[in-house]
TrEMBL record:
Keywords: Ribonucleoprotein, Ribosomal protein, RNA-binding, rRNA-binding. The keyword Repeat does not apply. GO terms for cellular component: ribonucleoprotein complex; ribosome. Transmembrane segments: none annotated. The lineage of its organism: Bacteria, Candidatus Eiseniibacteriota. InterPro entries: Ribosomal_uL4, Ribosomal_uL4-like, Ribosomal_uL4_dom_sf. One of its GO terms (biological process) is translation. One of its GO terms (molecular function) is structural constituent of ribosome. It comes from Eiseniibacteriota bacterium. Part of the 50S ribosomal subunit. This is Large ribosomal subunit protein uL4.
């Protein structure tokens, strides 16, 4: 049975807690985790890059020289791709990069990532989020009390909590999410995963 340290937001040790085996002792599939990471990063692309084509570039309306008799190759425009000042060849154009992995693949990738972190001892269960007023100072103090000030952390709560989001969004080394939106990329990005007790139960219901 996988276990993790149980602590309160002040950093006080409350013993250990058993982690659900169906989430934190799953099959580790590295290829599926790679798929999830690549898919996540691809979905962050805006796809707004644009280069000009022959019909949008200015100039080139006059034939540079007559068709025959000059000894040079025939040419109809100074704005073709082989001329200086012409458009790039096969340049990028706006496109939608969004892709969606099957639900079972996403679930396996998440369980694999959580299992990796649990096996490395990088999962800590908290008795609460430690955020009451939505102040960054509260989260910063909690992370410091846990001895994780120099590590990238992921704080997982059980549901949508605007106070937690507001408190954590100004911290460079902290991401916040909830059990219903957690992604394998976020788990693998973090050096340490902080999960509230309620979030552990929510993960069991959502991802098992």
């Amino acid at each position: 049975m996988a276990t993790a340290q149980l602590k309160d937001p002040s950093g006080a040790d409350k013993g250990t807690v058993d982690l659900p085996a169906e989430i934190f002792e799953s099959e580790i599939n590295r290829h599926v985790m790679w798929q999830a990471v690549v898919n996540y990063l691809k979905n962050q692309r805006q796809g707004t890059v644009q280069t000009k084509t022959r019909k949008t570039i200015s100039g080139g309306g006059v034939k540079p020289w007559r068709q025959k008799g000059t000894g040079r190759a025939r040419s109809g425009s100074t704005r073709t791709v082989v001329w200086v000042g012409g458009p790039p060849t096969k340049g990028p154009h706006p496109r939608d990069w969004y892709g969606r992995l099957p639900k079972k693949v996403r679930s396996l990738a998440l369980r694999s990532a959580l299992t990796v972190r649990a096996k490395d001892g990088r999962v800590t269960v908290l008795t609460g989020s430690g955020v009451a007023d939505g102040r960054t100072k509260e989260v910063a103090q909690m992370v410091k009390s846990l001895g994780l000030g120099d590590q990238k952390c992921l704080l997982v709560v059980d549901g949508h909590d605007p106070m937690v989001i507001r408190a954590g969004r100004n911290m460079e080394r902290l991401n916040t999410t909830n059990a219903h939106q957690i992604h394998a990329y976020e788990v693998l990005w973090a050096d340490h995963v902080l999960v509230t007790q309620k979030a552990v139960d929510a993960l069991k219901e959502v991802r098992s």
